[in-house]
Specification:
The protein is an alpha/beta fold. The protein has twelve helices and five strands. 61% of the residues lie in helices and 8% in strands.
């Protein structure tokens, strides 16, 4: 299995198969042996229910991040194409593809961005068109990030307090450093630049978590299932942990402002960045 295939497994959350492939690729590496042991112990603790879901999720993320860092040391066995050239294709002649990450409250802006990019010959994947009925959301997101040349994120308060968009952003930022993925942030609402943004956003997330906790308590007391709540709690706890890193990453980038009246000039810069012009 190639380095890129192992990285793809990690980004898809297939930790067990990825560890097996890494051990085969790095049989004498003590770090991968240690991480494999940590992963196996974590799975046993989860099965025995001796640790909380929040702690299990935090530990799993720590192990995955360590595995991704270690994956960079695996020797390359296959070249990877990089974006470049014009006319909507990269250097290998493959049509350039963009995954558009946004919050559905910003769907009007997403449609406008999608239409502009397609007018420049760039293929755009957007969930409203590409996601099949019944398809798993997390799998769809990971697949789109893995297969696209670029993830284009529409930045707004709506998107930054969205657990799904937060997951898309963190997965892409990780992939950007180790899997030759490009991440471009376009600003449609600039409140995240304010010093108080993270504090205010955390209040919203904490309120959401408190509501989930109350509902969870009710369901347990009434012997009702709560799997849906656990998944939502995990996503929101991840967002709470990751939000300061996401905002810091955005502030450290040269983001593109497409707030009217800057839409046309901003999107021209975005198209040039994608096409390598």
């Amino acid at each position: 299995m190639t380095k890129q295939e192992i990285i793809d497994l990690l980004l898809e959350g297939e930790i067990g198969p990825a560890i097996k492939a890494m051990r085969a690729a790095m049989p004498n590496d003590n770090v991968i042996l240690n991480l494999a042991g940590q992963w196996n112990r974590l799975q046993k603790d989860i099965a025995a229910r001796v640790i909380s879901p929040d702690y299990a999720n935090l530990t799993q993320n720590q192990i995955m991040n360590s595995l991704l860092e270690l994956a960079k040391k695996i020797p390359d066995s296959a070249g990877t194409g990089t974006s470049g050239g014009g006319g909507g294709t990269n250097s290998s002649g493959k049509a350039l593809t963009v995954f558009l990450s946004y919050n559905h409250k910003d769907s009007a802006s997403a449609t406008k961005v999608k239409d502009y990019l397609r007018s420049r010959g760039i293929q755009v994947t957007i969930d409203s068109e590409a996601m099949r009925p019944g398809e798993d959301i997390a799998s769809f997101i990971n697949k789109c990030i893995r297969e696209a040349d670029v993830t284009l994120s529409l930045v707004s308060t709506n998107s930054l307090i969205s657990a799904w968009v937060g997951m898309e952003t963190m997965n892409t930022v990780v992939g950007e450093h180790i899997a030759n993925k490009q991440f471009i942030a376009v600003v449609i609402e600039s409140s995240f630049y304010q010093l108080s943004f993270v504090r205010t956003a955390m209040e919203t997330i904490d309120k959401r978590l408190a509501e989930l906790k109350e509902e969870l308590k009710y369901r347990i007391e009434h012997d009702l299932g709560f799997e849906d709540l656990q998944n939502e709690r995990t996503r929101n706890n991840d967002l709470k942990n990751d939000l300061p890193k996401i905002v810091a990453n955005l502030k450290n980038r040269l983001n593109v402002d497409i707030i009217d009246p800057n839409f046309d000039s901003g999107m021209e810069r975005v198209a040039k960045a994608i096409l390598g012009n």
